[in-house]
Design goal:
Elements: E1 30-36, H1 43-52, E2 55-61, H2 64-73, E3 80-81, H3 85-93, E4 128-140, E5 166-169, H4 172-183, H5 192-205, E6 209-213, H6 217-222, E7 228-232, H7 233-242, E8 246-249, E9 257-264, H8 271-281, H9 284-294, H10 301-306, H11 309-312, H12 321-324, H13 335-351
Parallel strand pairs: 1-2, 1-3, 5-6
Antiparallel strand pairs: 3-9, 4-7, 4-8, 4-9
Helix pairs in contact: 4-5, 5-13
């Protein structure tokens, strides 16, 4: 997929209305942005600094759980984070997120109405949608037989023919979701018996798994060290760009549909600058450039119109409604279910 160079963007500076920038002087704050790996056009960070004077200290995490643990431990201080819907709900409940001042985020007007008022932030107080997508199954057409993917099933992840060439999510929520889906359970089930049954599915699969991975999936699949993996659709598109033998599908049994959104931590010492960053990422040109780089579906409706036709019509990035109807959005599970998930995951990773 052709990615538009940021250098083509008009770089005329604009004025960001922040108290910290009063008197027309440059803002010298440094903003700590914490995001998923492989999930932003890094050139946009330089552009944000060029426009505002605000420097960005950008670091990444591999899962919602890793991000959450780092924040609650107090090991580091962040301003902007980009969690998924269920984690946003959890962090709202725990009073970790700041209510946003949308007067500092005028580009919020370009977010499609279908991405607002969702269950994880029903009053649109704490988050601004960044991207959305689904989990897909990625496979190498050189090594995986066509008959084994003809039904586009989750069964590929449990196919003994490919033992040692299968990767699996290295986070419990995504891994258990696939097992639940294989069994016909809701991914948001709170039934302990269904969690035990899903754990048995993962135990059954473990001898086939080469490694439990997150961002390591890129090198392993592109370099053909592994042939099969579940991962997020946008990242799958990037992998397919780098290896023409890679294909992917949304499993017929259903998959997680996720919504990642930009939030400001309540502990942020640079709230207005953080809101300026969110507003910048919602700028029509910036959001379009970023979408071409990360290959994820975007909620910014004006940016969507600027995307290349091949991307707008790509059913991997923007699945049709009949596919989305089979997908499920994660919710924040009750503490007792999360505790059970954690215990089962630790047992899977350490005992079998």
């Amino acid at each position: 997929m052709k990615k538009k160079a940021l250098a083509l963007l008009l770089v005329a500076l604009f004025v960001v209305s922040l108290c910290a920038c009063g008197g027309g002087q440059a803002n010298t704050a440094t903003l700590n942005v914490y995001n998923w790996g492989e999930y932003i056009d890094l050139d946009t960070l330089d552009e944000f600094t060029a426009r505002t004077g605000i420097k960005v200290n950008y670091t990444t995490y591999a899962s919602n759980e890793e991000m959450y643990s780092k924040i609650v431990s107090g090991a580091a201080s962040y301003d902007v984070i980009i969690p998924s819907e269920y984690m946003i709900s959890k962090m709202i409940e725990e009073d970790l997120l700041a209510e946003l001042d949308f007067g500092n985020i005028p580009n919020y007007q370009y977010i499609g109405e279908e991405y607002k008022g969702l269950d994880y932030d029903p009053d649109n107080k704490y988050s601004v949608p960044y991207t959305w997508g689904t989990v897909v199954i990625v496979y190498n057409t050189k090594y995986v037989d066509e008959e084994d993917v003809a039904d586009e099933s989750l069964e590929l992840l449990w196919n003994e023919k490919y033992a040692g060439k299968i990767l699996m999510f290295d986070n419990p929520r995504d891994a258990f979701a696939l097992a639940h889906s294989r069994l016909g359970h809701s991914m948001n089930t709170t039934d302990p018996a269904e969690w035990e049954a899903a754990a048995e599915q993962l135990i059954e699969q473990k001898p086939l798994v080469q490694a439990y991975v997150m961002d390591q999936v890129f090198d392993k699949i592109i370099g053909e060290e592994a042939w099969i993996a579940p991962y997020y659709a946008g990242d799958a598109m990037s992998i397919m760009d780098d290896n023409e033998d890679i294909a992917a599908y949304v499993p017929v049994e259903g998959a997680n549909r996720f919504f990642d959104s930009m939030c400001v931590l309540k502990s942020s010492r640079h709230k207005e600058e953080a809101e300026a960053f969110i507003n910048f990422m919602c700028d029509t040109e910036i959001a379009e450039i970023n979408a071409e780089e990360v290959c994820y579906a975007i909620p910014q409706v004006e940016s969507f119109k600027l995307l290349p036709e091949e991307m707008r019509e790509d059913t991997m990035v923007y699945p049709p409604e009949e596919v989305l109807e089979k997908c499920e959005v994660f919710i924040n599970l009750p503490p007792e279910t999360l505790d059970l998930q954690s215990r089962l995951w630790i047992k899977l990773k350490t005992t079998y």
